[in-house]
Amino acid sequence: MSFADILNNGWTSFARTLRLTDTSPVLNLGKSLFVGLCATITLSACTHPTAVETIQREGVLNVVTIDSERTLVEQDGQTVGFEYELAKQFADRLGVKLRMYSVDTIDEVYESINKGYASFAAAGIALNIQPNQLISPTYASSSTIAIYRQGSVKPKTPKDLIGKKVAVIKGSPAEHWLTVTTQALPELTWEAVSSPDIISLFAELDTQNFDILIASDHDYEAYQAYFPELRIAFEGLDNHEIGWLFTKSEDLTLYKKAVDFLSDPTTTEQIAYLQEKYYGHQLRLDFVGAKTFKFHTNKRLPKYRKTIEAAAEKFEQDYYLLAAIGYQESHWNPKAKSPTGVRGFMMLTRPTAKDMGVSNRLNAEQSIQGGAKYFSRIHKSLPERIQEPDRTWFALAAYNVGRGHLEDARILTEQAGKNPDQWADVKEFLPLLQDKRWYKKTKYGYARGYEPVIYVQNIRRYIDVLRWYDQRQEEIRIAKAAEEPTTEEEKPASVHAPVIML
């Protein structure tokens, strides 16, 4: 069902299309409101329930977001995303379930809250605040930048954009900046694209379908590693705050609840945790590193992919994780060696190799199997209370620096009143293992504590990019297959991404 259908037919038709099972609270909204308006015939006047009371009576909080992997995504059978997790915590605070659904464009975000289909928008992007709208306390900021492809002429000022093919997301603050800029530069033109995801515009810029992309620095940080040829031309064009967007009304009870929630010190800590979880690793690949990674992904990785996949299956680990470890350790070079004595594809020490049953560290298959086995052992040995993804980040740190040094850092973290089971906290204390004032108090002593922090963040970034490369190749394969002539029976059915109902 299209967004227009939602607007025309309302939630009832919308939910029926999605085969919604918990229909009674939301789909009988009119009926429940009527009952709530006149709770007893003895009252001389009707009492209107507040927005919060209505939500709590229905047991569900409806929130709209933009269709993006940075806000809401299904991954390994679970719903994840910064905005999803933050909104879910707010729903939990209200004592209701979260129903978050995604739309394709910014205009549809505005429509959703203006028409009342969602209580507020949590889009994870800077939005142009309309006169009839309110924004919550903000939890991030972004600025508008101009992006070009290296090898073409680099524009240095807005005036240099005249005569260029410029693209921007329709309805975004970046388009607003262009609109304002044309007052001084009327010759400047651009194409406003109603794209479901900004990454598609990065891909078009990379293939030079246009010359310049005006976007946010957040978007560039998220995707620059995927497109190493794309660079910032100039930046700091304007700044925007990011928060939840509400429609102004006489009833501000829900808005005030959101203000209280986002201003709570506990929420502030959780926001910092979520920012580290989803965005903390994004700047780990610079231009040179991204180009080298892309080169080796095309030239070296295919030779070892099946071996890595077999090890991942045998030891119940993620293929992309093991591939990323291999790149971080040796750049997928089975003959690699370091001055410290570690060798091979997974850079195993001699004692570790012996313990894992590896007789020849320079044999790629043995090294990959041994490294996967070693990582799996560390992963399983961690305290059961440590949850994912922190569990994997801790296992990676221990793989790099040793389990004992990791435990020293966790103890220091706990002594400082922080959470020893969260990577976001422990990574702040690992570097202290290089400081004599701290490591002399620990059981295992000195360690190069900065290294495991960089190690983990690098691998997280490699995982992201490897996943995206594969997704991109699959999209290209499907597109090519769709262009081939087919019989009527062979034509694939049209598939639309479902709205997430939780």
TrEMBL record:
List of catalytic residues: 329
BP terms from Gene Ontology: cell wall macromolecule catabolic process; cell wall organization; peptidoglycan catabolic process
One Pfam family, short name: SLT
Entry's Gene Ontology molecular function annotations: peptidoglycan lytic transglycosylase activity
Protein name per Swiss-Prot or TrEMBL: Membrane-bound lytic murein transglycosylase F
Assigned keywords, A-Z: Cell outer membrane, Cell wall biogenesis/degradation, Lyase, Membrane, Signal
Biological function: Murein-degrading enzyme that degrades murein glycan strands and insoluble, high-molecular weight murein sacculi, with the concomitant formation of a 1,6-anhydromuramoyl product. Lytic transglycosylases (LTs) play an integral role in the metabolism of the peptidoglycan (PG) sacculus. Their lytic action creates space within the PG sacculus to allow for its expansion as well as for the insertion of various structures such as secretion systems and flagella.
Similarity section: Belongs to the bacterial solute-binding protein 3 family. In the N-terminal section; belongs to the bacterial solute-binding protein 3 family.
Catalytic activity: Exolytic cleavage of the (1->4)-beta-glycosidic linkage between N-acetylmuramic acid (MurNAc) and N-acetylglucosamine (GlcNAc) residues in peptidoglycan, from either the reducing or the non-reducing ends of the peptidoglycan chains, with concomitant formation of a 1,6-anhydrobond in the MurNAc residue
